[in-house]
Amino acid sequence: MVNTINFIPFFHKTSEASLKNVKQRTGQIFQNKNGDWTARVGYKNNNGKRTAVQRIAKTKTDARKILKHLLKTLEDGGRKALDAEKITVNSLCDYYLKNYANPPYYVNDRKVAGLRSHVQIKGYINVFREFFGAVRLQSLTYDDLREFRIQRLLTPTHQSSQRTIASVNRELSYLRRILNIAERNGWIAKNPFKGGDVLIHSADEVKRERILTLEETQRLIDACTDRRAHLKPLIIAALDTGCRLGELLKLQWQEVDLTFGVIIIKAFNTKTMRKREVGITTRLHTELESLWNSFPQSKEDLVFGVSEVRKSFKSACSKAGLSDLRFHDLRYCHASKLNELGFSVPEIASQLGHTQIQTTLRYINRHKNSVRKVTLALDSIYQDMMPTIEIISELIN
């Protein structure tokens, strides 16, 4: 038994073109031999050929509602809107990988296309596929994203350790970015991230507090001998300039001016794609001059001559008796030292190459000695005030 319903959608403005569209579209519901109800809408595609889209319904009433929805979607957004209903998270991931997650392309040291983190992003994409997979984009809700966040926090890392809030925040940030693309293309009416409270809480991230004392710093430098000797100038450069490890490893001699004591960090090598200059301290100048004179160099050669230091740095930390220390912590040490010396936050941000002050504030960690200095200074003020306070108290009484 087949029940057919011809349905003409409502138009706010009747025109010859709209009437023509009405004739091109047919809607019907029917029940197949298995007893399932189906809503089907026919229309012409871009090539002028007739095609159809259909949805399975539980009841005849549901089929009528779906039919009205399909016809309204077709009227409001055209064939593209109907096609969008079929797009899944997997499809969106495929689109993103093809059009966005490509190796970077540069023109005059400026990135004009692609992503430098394209390899890392592919790992995030795999996570999205595993969790959402065939879920249709238009059925994705804010609650689905909230559940994703909870489940990721509860899922241990490959090393069986607790997954950090920071790592989940990065995953959520890329997922939000990908869904923004879907919104721009009209595949979803609104990014589901906008459907509730903020899901990315940067303030909840555990702040790194590992700051080296002068004694610890010297132990780390002294540990850079024998097979670890190449680390010494690199560690001193990180401590004295605050440069990122990647910036230092890519540094060429043509970007080092020993005469004026300046290092130029090219925009091409920075995280924020902004060029900046940092000064060369006396001890760093000695190390760089020694490197330059140790064997023949050309302007295109890498200053530190290595591309990977993870294992040797871990070995140096072990020999120096330093635990829970990452190379990036040396950048935190530099920022915190500048803060102790009285430099303003904007000045520190400029030195580190930050574009947002909020980022710099996360780098400024005070050592216990610095905290103690504040206490001693306040005690000194209060002690100076005590005689005056006692005199005033006696006069009042």
Which key phrases capture this entry?
single chain; DNA polymerase, domain 1; mainly alpha; about 400 residues; 15 helices; three-stranded antiparallel sheet; about 50% helix; hpI Integrase, Chain A
Structural class: mainly alpha
Q: Looking at the structure, what is the overall shape?
A: elongated
Strand order of the largest sheet: 1-2-3
CATH topology of the largest domain: hpI Integrase, Chain A
Helicity, in percent?
40-55%
Order of helices and strands: HEEEHHEEHHHHHHEEEHHHHHH
Query: Can you give the mean pLDDT?
Result: 81
- Runs in which pLDDT lies below 50 for 5 or more consecutive residues are 1-24
The major pleated sheet works out as: 3 strands, antiparallel
Name given to the CATH homologous superfamily of the largest domain:
Intergrase catalytic core
| Oligomerization status of the protein chains | single chain
Number of domains: 3
Rg over CA atoms, rounded to whole Å, is 31 Å
Tell me what portion of residues adopts beta-strand conformation.
5-15%
What is the terminal-to-terminal distance? 104 Å
CATH class label of the largest domain = Mainly Alpha
Care to count the β-strands?
A: 8
**In the CATH classification, which architecture of the largest domain applies?**
Orthogonal Bundle
The number of distinct helices, counting runs of at least 4 residues, comes to: 15
